[in-house]
Design goal:
The protein is about 45% helix and about 15% strand. Helix 2 packs antiparallel against helix 7, helix 13 runs antiparallel to helix 14 and helix 13 packs across helix 15. The longest helix is centred in the last third of the chain and has 29 residues. With about 425 residues, it is α/β, with parallel strands linked by helices.
Amino acid sequence: MSTKDKAMSNPTVSGTVVIGHVRTTREVDATLIESDIEWDDRRFPLWIRIPGRVSHNDSFADIFVPLAIFPALRGGGVLRSTDAVSPMLAASVAEIQTIMTAWYPGDFRRFALEAPLRHGDQRPHDGVASCFTGGVDSFHTLARNRGDITSLVFARGLDIPLEERDFFHMVSSRLREAAHGLSLPLLEPESNFRSILDASGLWLEHTHGAAIASNALALAPQHFSKLYIPSTQSYRYIGPLGSHPMLDSLWSTEYLRIDHDSFGVDRAHKTAEIAHSEEARRYLRVCWESRSGYNCGVCEKCTRTMIGLELAGVLDRFGTFPDTLDLHRVETMRLSDESKIDMVQDSLDIARERPGNEDLVAALELAIARGRAHIRTQKFSDLARLNSHADERSFAIDELWKHSTKEMVRRMPRAIASKFKR
């Protein structure tokens, strides 16, 4: 029995993660790629279905490396691959660990990678792809790199769960129409990768960039050699996130380059730059709340997007949103973290520069004030929970919060403070 066979025949111990042999099955108009990942005596049967009937490719082993990294980070032991993997990807694993353990020292620990290295990969495909969910970031990256991009990628099973089949098909049909209008193919892989990622990390904070990379590694040999991942953050706010300019390129291999795109442009200016795109006006999709329609038009993310379109003077021309902006919804947006506050601050800066936006400026200022108050409250609540048996400490925190809130309201402009007290 070979060493690799022994690795799969013995039960895994705590801290050991094993990627099994990769298998492919050619279906009627697709190819199913499968592998099992063993982690702490649990087996995760993972699969991805890609369009087209393709032959087995040794590079398919790379698909499962990003997925196995997070269980390995949890255990801090050994990550072992049965099949040979990309030397370039294997070399990047150490840097990925350095980043993730620095960002989340209490959650992740370093591990050892044991994997044979593969040599002689096929010549990379000439195409260039971009992730495309129909959002502001997607349309902006597409507009910025339109001359290079030869295909778009919308993956099922990532932000829209596999079980939400009807909703996915509704969104997919709209995005296919958009891609058709742009004369680009829309590649739609589907996978169950979130089964292991959700068991080993948080989707937005830790793992969604790895899921994007795994989908790209499956598609690349047949379709492209470069993938753009549109940025979520900008220079105003840069914090730990699963897709990040420090992280995304590290998923690259000899046959696939992954670029984190447009990090230097904030969301408000991205919205302004896509304001005159006919496809964006017909198909822009930003909402994660609605499951009965395309955009709900009332959630925090929809409202933030509508603010940008209003400032660009084109809100009434975007058919996927209400025609008018409700300032009360602007005032009461739930800005639950600093990154959302910073995105609204970008819009506020633009609004202040342009005459005639006084009411919108006041509403944005109030929303930011409320958001910062919420964050302060949450911090105090977290302290109170840590000291739940210390009544004196809880009382002091309550008094401190009351005082800080009164002081914050006292310093506000009178018109805003009166609304905040409501």
